[in-house]
What we know:
The protein has 195 residues and is α+β, with helices and mostly antiparallel strands. It has 2 domains: 3-112, Glycoprotein, Type 4 Pilin (2-Layer Sandwich); 116-187, Hypothetical protein ph0010, domain 2 (Dna Ligase, domain 1, 2-Layer Sandwich), CATH 3.30.1490.150. The chain is 30% helix and 25% strand. The protein is built from 6 helices and 9 strands, in the order ααβββαββαββααββ. The protein has helices at residues 3-13, 21-31, 76-89, 123-129, 159-169, 176-179, and strands at 48-57, 63-68, 74-75, 105-112, 116-117, 136-141, 144-148, 183-187, 189-193. The strands form 2 sheets. Strands 1, 2, 3, 4 and 9 form a 5-stranded antiparallel sheet that branches. Strands 5-8-6-7 form a 4-stranded antiparallel sheet, with helices on one face. Helix 2 (21-31) packs parallel to helix 3 (76-89). The radius of gyration is 18 Å and the shape is globular.
Amino acid sequence: MAFWFWLKTLIKKFGDSRRTFVEGIEEYLKEGKIIDLKEIPFESWKKLGASFITLENNLTGNLRGCIGSIIPVQSLYKDVIRNSIAAATQDPRFRPLSLFELPETRVKVSILSYPKPILYEDPKDLLNKIEPMKDGLILKYKNFQGTFLPDVWEDLPEKTLFLSNLCLKANLPADCWINLPVEIYRYRTKVFSEN
């Protein structure tokens, strides 16, 4: 199923709107404009919210873009639109998605809960407090920060491996969660996906 068709289907689940997220994203890709929807069919999408958008190639399953927000700073519908556009055009790991690639693109929208600190005494206590497959984690140390969505547990199911890779993602040594006074926050996600 094509990326834009799926987003349109997602919006229809929450009601009908003259201008859907799909139209907003398509308009950006074609015209370079970000629209502001006047009608939002689902009340909770008007409130502050944070989202991550993950794009994958439908044929290979390879990641094609993943960008999001950790802290809510705008209404959820705006966050989803902006992060969809950013995942398609601004992920520094990939070239921008072309209109030609859209039919082969699968999307996952993750809506994040507000991050809460995990208070822990030592690395062993931290390991005991983490819930694999449920927790998305944010690791902070000074000006360094990294996050993994709960989906990453599928690739890194061992807690120590998960935390070590999260350290690396934050451009810190792999053992930073053991040897540095890092802050760890947890969040949960509600995921809307094509499959």
